[in-house]
Amino acid sequence: MQPPLFLVVTALAGALGAAEPAKAPAAPKKDPAKKPAAAAPAKAAPAKAEAPKPAAPAPKAPVLPADDFGKASADLKDKNPMVRRRACDELSRLRDPRAVPLLLPALSDESPFVRSAAVDSLGLLRAPEAVGPVTALLTKDPEAQVRQQAAIALAYLGAKQSEDALIAALGDKETSVRYAAVRTLGALRSAKAEAQITALLKDADSGMRRVAAGTLGQLRSAASLGPLTGLLKDEDPYTRREAVRAIGSLTGDGVKEALLKALADADEATRIHAALALNRFGAPEGEKAVVDLLKSADAAVRLQASNALGTIATKDVGLPALVKAADAEKDAAVKNQFAFAARQVRARLGLPEPEAAPK
Which DSSP state fits 204? Predict the structure, then answer.
């Protein structure tokens, strides 16, 4: 007996349903009006621990100055003469009076370079106990360099008691020693040496004549006027200039006349020196002579003339000459100097500066 038809259909439908795979549930529909939720912020990484900073270094101890005196003192005994010489120089630089007893033995050093440096240092230190030994070196040392330095040092030492040795040194065979001796005798104002120095005005060396004239100017002896006036005829213009300066330092009859003669010198610079010296006599000739030199072809002479007028120019002669020369001058440097000299004159005479021209 066959089963009823509806049972067969029902069974077949069940078999088919069992064979078909199950469908996944449908995803819910998104609401277009609804914004998606923001993503959660990422967690920050934990901060790393900073490494400890190194400790600040301990302050350094201050550098102490070297014991320059001690080193120089020790170097005086060095085997190398150049080291000993530098030690003498260093001790003079330090200006420490403790160096005097250390330097005195160096006057007998076997090296002339060391002896010379020791003499120089003792002079700069103004060591009175060095006068005797230094004077002995001027007289007896075999090296001209040491004798010359000894003569110079005696000027620093103010060693009037060394006049005789210095006068004797005027006859030294070395010119450098003679030069130093003349200058020191002038610095010491040695009237005792006047005759010997006056004799040097006739020396064959123009430089020696010039130095002798300058020294006589320092001595300021009226007796030297005649010999110095004779030197105004010297062939060397530099010697004549020095003679004029020396005459200008003297007082007494005949000084003004000698300077007036020098205004006619062929050397322009000699005329300027004469004019400056005449200023103390109130002689107008000097000012006029310098005014003429404002027109010199030599720019250096024009500059010297303007410098002199800055000192001696008067309101009615030198000052208007400077103003006129400044207007005509082509050299810018000289023109500026002329204008500066004019301002000097106004300031010296208490005159107002002219008002600037309107632009």
Answer: S
Same domain as 312, residue 258: no
148, 177 contact by CB (below 8 A): yes
* Exposure of 78 in the CB half-sphere (CA atoms within 13 A): 16
Q: Are residues 143 and 74 in the same domain?
A: yes
Contact 231, 199 (CB under 8 A): no
Same-domain pairing of 208 and 264: yes
Number of structural domains in the chain: 3
End-to-end, the C-alpha distance of the chain in Å comes to 148
Give yes or no for a contact between 239 and 261, defined as CB atoms under 8 angstroms apart: no
CATH number at residue 97: 1.25.10.10
Q: How far is CA 86 from CA 77, 124, 141, 333, in A?
A: 12, 15, 21, 44
Q: Is residue 216 part of a domain?
A: yes
Of 28, 216, 205, 81, whose CA–CA distance to 229 is shortest? 216
**What is the C-alpha to C-alpha distance for residues 4 and 353, in angstroms, rounded to an integer?**
151
Q: What is the pLDDT of residues 198-228, one digit of tens each?
A: 999 999 999 999 999 999 999 999 999 999 9
Q: Domain of 152?
A: 67-188
pTM over 0.85: no
Give the confidence band of 355 by pLDDT, cuts at 50, 70, 90: confident
Together in a domain, 264 and 322? no
Who contacts 209 (Cβ-Cβ below 8 Å, separation ≥6)?
200, 201, 202, 203, 231, 234, 236, 239
